[in-house]
Amino acid sequence: MALLHHWTVATSLELFKGDDKHNFWQIMVPQSGYEHPFVMNAILSLAALHRAYLIRSDKNQHMADAAVHHTKALRGFQEALSHFNDENGEAVFIWSTLNLLYVFGISGRLSDGLEPHPNPLSRKDRMLGVEWIPMVTGIRTVVKPNHKVLKSGRLSKFMTVGNWLELDPDAKPHPEDERLCHLRSCWDGTPDAPTYEEALRILRKCRLFMAQFSGIDPLEEAGFNRLWSGPLLFIIFAPQPYLTLLHQRQPPALILFAFFGALLHDLDDYWFLEGWGRDIVEVIDDLLGSYWRPWIEWPSKVTGLNQDE
Question: What residues in the chain have per-residue pLDDT under 50?
Fold first, then answer.
């Protein structure tokens, strides 16, 4: 009960900051948890992880509690997925979202110091999305067959990306957008240029999407138009060939992802994303080396990696 109480009075309120009108996380998600134990365990795992973030003196114990509930949640989710239908579609979507936040929280700086001999290769894989990118794209897979049902239910506000389709980054030139457009030079003439160009277009739209909510309270009618959803839209809409190039650690793909890290850095005050933007850029800086480093000068500067610039 202590973890559920913490979810209600603390964790749920930290997911959509500044929006006291939206009670989805605080009230409706626990309601789903009462109906579906695997959702409740996902709630408790994230609440325990949040307590680990807040109470560092008991971090290890809270993280152990989080792991226990997450294991139970994962087992229940796998069973629910084997009987996926309209009845549990909402719960599966909620679990998928909670699990993504859990993975961000557990894979970030909160885990620093837990391993006596951390593997630098493992850290690079984490920062470059080997685990969490499939989870983001997996949410879309979960939603697609049940989109109409979900849109007509309690999740209706989450089944829209607002004005995403109408956004045109070419309509209003902006200095930050010009920095992104300058990246074209690093893949001009390569066989993968069309893939990079499409990924760049999506990243430019993400920047524009996030700019709409910078410095203002999100509007309830904006649906899923929340500042922190902006970077994730890049992963959702980026072409699969680009994600493959990123997994291969091709330099132009890494450079684009460093700029994604700069966008993610804008969300550093969300506890489950703290440090992610800077750490992504740091990993990419290490992988690229001196030849390609000038291309990520701006992400390095805005994330604080290069304090001298």
Answer: 20-21, 217-225, 308-309
* Residue 189 region by backbone torsions, left for phi larger than 0, else alpha for psi between -120 and 50, else beta: left
Give the Cα-Cα-Cα angle 140, 167, 149 (nearest 5 degrees): 30
Residue 51 in contact with residue 59, Cβ under 8 Å? Answer: no
Distance CA 106, CA 66 (A): 9
Burial state string for 251-263 with b = 16 or more CB within 10 A and e = fewer than 16 = bbbbbbbbbbbbb
What is the rounded (10 degree) CA torsion for 111, 117, 121, 125? -20
Unique residue bearing structure tokens 């500042």: 227
DSSP 8-state assignment for residue 304: T
Taking the C-alpha atoms of residue 32 and residue 152, their distance in angstroms, rounded to an integer, is 16
Return d(Cα 228, Cα 209) in angstroms, integer.
10
Radius of gyration of the chain (CA): 20
One-letter identity of residue 279: D
Q: What is the pTM of this model?
A: 0.89
* Structure tokens belonging to residue 133: 């990118």
What pLDDT does 293 receive? 94
Inter-residue long-range contacts of 107-113, CB under 8 Å, 24+ positions, other chains counted: 107/131, 107/132, 108/272, 108/273, 108/274, 108/275, 108/276, 108/279, 109/274, 109/275, 109/279, 110/49, 110/52, 110/53, 110/59, 110/63, 111/63
